[in-house]
Amino acid sequence: MKLGMVGLGRMGAGMTERLRRDGHTVQTHDPKVESTASSLKELAAQLEPPRTVWMMIPAGEVTENTVKELLTILEAGDVLVDGGNSNFHDSKRRSEQAAHIGIHFLDVGVSGGVWGLKEGFCLMAGGADEPIRLLKPAFETLAPEGGWAHVGPSGAGHFVKMAHNGIEYGLIQAYAEGFEIMRSSEFELDLAQIAGIWRYGSVVRSWLLELLEQAFDEHGADLADIAAYVEDSGEGRWSVIEAINEDVPAPVITLALYARFASRQEESFAAKISAALREQFGGHAVKAEATPR
User: Does the annotation mark 161 as catalytic?
Assistant: First the structure.
């Protein structure tokens, strides 16, 4: 099939290449890299109705502005796909806006990262049946066998991707804590070796362990050139908010999110409060803060 790809970052570029390798025609637009179109309007002109335009761009303002512009360019019967990590509430709203002018809107959660070109991308699609049917050839190319599904109506794709990323937070944090316990032990353990053997037969085996073993090989056993600063892209926060809204206990995902917050603090004011109160009520000793040089 023929489609347009907006955004040629780590994910969009890999998806474009995977589609082209399988015989699809992909027109592209990204102002930061070489593309077939210099504008969204030119991109639409390079496609034949019913057009499909797939966005792989950052969630938030960039996606909001791009959707608004594309809804003034595309026509009834065309399909607009948001493959970024948008909030599912925004996707439901955008789907309604598109439907008013006859444009199909799909929210497709995409997982696979920089390895997706080689291994395939897991796709979680939300939206109506007709545009899903139209895009089935692209879905089957992008995903490995059994790696895509129509998970529900508009918003469902990004909702499932949100939960997926919340789970990812918990998994990563569990591995991180376990390996730090081993690193701090009395034993001189080869952490890369352990990550390697756990990949085979262990109940905690996973692709993440394969990536961790690779990280140890690339950066050394102490990961000395990687700062202990962990960002979050939003989905973990949304997972926690939805858990609260649904009265669902989600302590692991919540604590994993807070651990990321803690990683960004040069010092904890809350810890100072705790130390000060222990000194006040119990006379416990406190450590003096180092004097800046």
Answer: yes
pLDDT per position as a tens digit, 44-85: 999 999 999 999 999 999 999 999 999 999 999 999 999 999
* Confidence at residue 233, expressed as pLDDT on a 0 to 100 scale: 86
Short-list 32, 36, 94, 102, CA closest to 69: 94
What type of residue sits at position 122?
Answer: C
Q: How far apart are CA 77 and CA 104, in angstroms?
A: 7
Residue 293 has pLDDT above 60, yes or no: no
Selecting among 42, 64, 140, 168, the annotated active-site residue is 168
pLDDT at 292 over 70: no
CA nearest to 125, candidates 111, 145, 144: 111
Active site residue 32: no
Q: Which of 92, 161, 213, 235 is catalytic?
A: 161
For residue 103, count other CB atoms closer than 10 A to its CB: 24
Cα torsion angle, 149, 79, 77, 104, sign: positive
